[in-house]
């Protein structure tokens, strides 16, 4: 059985596993008319209750935004297929799932930070939530 991957959403963060995720993406076979969408989600507070209603939500600094955009453009330049970049702010899992729906992705590629125990319970697992709720298959890339 052959699976054709026309659109792949690649979710990257600053956890240090991005290079491994990119290596994995380069191993995937896409048709010449395929498309890769690189996305980075700048997380906001875990709860809107934590934010005063009379103040704007925190935005990523212009410098951080530019650094992330420049890195994604570098990844983009290494591709042989069409690609887009999406930089969004919000809950990482929800935004990745939303982008997967918008682009009608055939596959989402995401890294796992390898959290265990209480850290995983407290911080939550973005990759687990994406696997659970994504509109398509999800490839989770594990660290080292």
UniProtKB/TrEMBL annotation:
Residues 6-142 form the UspA domain. InterPro entries: Rossmann-like_a/b/a_fold (IPR014729), Universal_stress_UspA (IPR006015), UspA (IPR006016). It comes from the Bacteria. PANTHER family: STRESS RESPONSE PROTEIN NHAX, UNIVERSAL STRESS PROTEIN SLL1388. Belongs to the universal stress protein A family. This is UspA domain-containing protein. It comes from Dulcicalothrix desertica PCC 7102.
């Amino acid at each position: 059985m052959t699976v054709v991957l026309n659109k792949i959403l690649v979710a990257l963060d600053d956890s240090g596993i991005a290079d491994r995720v990119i290596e994995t993406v380069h191993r995937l076979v896409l048709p010449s008319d395929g498309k890769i969408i690189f996305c980075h989600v700048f997380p906001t507070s875990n709860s809107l209750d934590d934010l005063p209603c009379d103040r704007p939500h925190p935005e990523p600094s212009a410098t951080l935004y530019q650094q992330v955009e420049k890195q994604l453009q570098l990844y983009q330049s290494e591709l042989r297929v069409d690609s887009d970049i999406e930089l969004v702010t919000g809950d990482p899992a929800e935004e990745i799932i939303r982008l997967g729906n918008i682009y009608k992705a055939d596959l989402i590629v995401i890294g796992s930070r390898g959290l265990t125990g209480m850290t995983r319970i407290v911080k939550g697992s973005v990759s687990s939530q994406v696997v659970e709720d994504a509109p398509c298959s999800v490839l989770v890339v594990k660290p080292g």
